[in-house]
Q: What sequence folds into this?
């Protein structure tokens, strides 16, 4: 795998205008796909995934800010009418 095609969470945060904490949380929640090329403590994100997220966020049909895109349990809770946990 070409390492130039992978970004650190800090680089993802800078690219998307998010905090590093938000990026790590989105990775943990599965909203940002990630890979672990050097073991379980090293997290990287593919450039293509970041580009896709940026395009989705800038799309006029995007329903929400990319930092709060529903996924997993949050999406299920919202469908049931429960308030989102932050």
A:
């Amino acid at each position: 795998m070409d390492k130039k095609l992978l970004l650190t969470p800090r680089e993802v945060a800078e690219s998307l205008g998010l905090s590093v904490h938000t990026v790590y949380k989105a990775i943990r929640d599965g909203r940002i796909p990630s890979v672990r090329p050097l073991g379980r403590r090293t997290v990287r994100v593919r450039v293509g995934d970041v580009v896709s997220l940026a395009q989705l966020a800038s799309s006029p049909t995007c329903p929400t800010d990319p930092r709060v895109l529903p996924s997993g349990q949050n999406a299920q809770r919202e469908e049931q009418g429960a308030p989102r946990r932050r």
